[in-house]
Amino acid sequence: MNFLRFLLFPAALLYGIGIFFRNLLYQIGILPAKGFDTGIIVIGNLSVGGTGKSPMTEYLIRLLKEKFPLATLSRGYKRHTTGFLLAEKDSTSFQIGDEPLQFKKKFPDIIVSVDENRKQGIKKLLLQFPQLKIILLDDAFQHRRVKPGLSILLTDYSKIFYDDFLLPVGSLREWSAGKGRADIIIVTKCPVNLSPVEKRIILKNISPEPHQHVFFSHIKYGEPITLFPSPSGEGLGMRSTVVLLTGISNPKPLEDYLKDKVSNIIPMHYPDHHEYTIVEANKAVETFNNIASSNKVIITTEKDAMRLDKPGLVEVLHTLPIYYIPIEVSFDEKEKTEFNQLITDYAFRTNQKHSGVH
Length: 358
Hints:
The protein is α/β, with parallel strands linked by helices. It has helices spanning 2-27, 53-64, 93-96, 98-106, 118-128, 196-206, 252-259, 278-289, 302-308, 313-317, 333-353; strands spanning 39-45, 70-74, 85-86, 111-114, 134-138, 150-156, 184-188, 213-221, 225-226, 241-246, 264-269, 296-301, 322-325, 327-331. The longest helix has 26 residues, at 2-27.
C-alpha cells in the first residue's frame, strides 16, 4: 500500500499544483467570486467522503427555519438531471439526489433546490423567492465562484485533514491550507467522551487562525424507523441478526453503534451514493431469507432509504422489515450554545445590514 502511494505521489503533486494556482487566482481576484446580499452559509470539507455535511445542514435548518426564510442549494450529486430544479413533494433521488430529497422529506415547508452551478442556482432562487434571507450551500467549500458570508468546514475525527494528503494518495480535495478560508471548523463524529486533553491536542494540530472557531461534534442516533408499511418484525434487540445495507462512504460508525445492540451483523456495503439495482435488491432479499434466526431485520441509513424507496425496488423489498436510523449532529452543551450563537448572530447581522435597520 505504501509503495502504491509512492507511485501515485507525482499525480497528487500535479493535482496539488493545479489546485494551488486555482485558489491563488481567486485569492488575488483574477477569477471573480460573486457576493450576494442574502446570507450565504457554506457547509463543506477538504476531503472526499462523508464528514457529516447533510446532518450539519439539517442542524442549521432546525436552528434557523423559524426565524428566517431559508433555502438549501446542493449540486444533487449523482442525480440523473442537470440544471436548476426545485424539490417537490413527489421528487425522487433520481431527479434531485438523495441528500436534497432527504432535506425535503424532513422539512417539507422549506425551499430545497439543486444546481451544479451554485452561482446560477442562487440567482434563480432569489429571482423566484426574493424574500429569502439565508441560503445554505451544501458541499460547496471548493465552489469558489460564490463568496460566502459564513464558511463551515467539517473534518472527520477518524481522519482529520492534517493527517491526510491530496488525491489520489490521500482523500484531500485541496491542500490543508485551504482551512484558512473557514470561519468555523468542526471536528465531526467524535467519541461522546472525547477528553479535554485530546481536544487540546487536536486544536493545536489544527492551529486555527485568530478569527476561526473550532468545535467538536458527535453523532446522535435516533430510533429506527420502518421504511415501508410492512411487517415490522421484532425490531432491534440483543438477539437480533442485522443485515446492514449501506451505500455511504464510511459505514463504520453505524456498524460500531449497532455492535452493542445486536448479536450479529451481516454487512452489505456499496459505494457512496450508490444507486441500487433490482439485482442488488434481490440479493438483499436472498441474504435476509438465508438467515436461520427468526429475529432478523435489515438496517440502512436515512440517505440510503431515499434511494431504496423507488419503483422497482419497492416491489422487491416492501414485505421485509427494513428500518433506517436517522442521525443528528450533537454538541456538548457549552459548545452548542456558542455555536448556535455564532450562526444566529451572523443571520441577524446579515438581515439587518441589508434591510437598512442598524
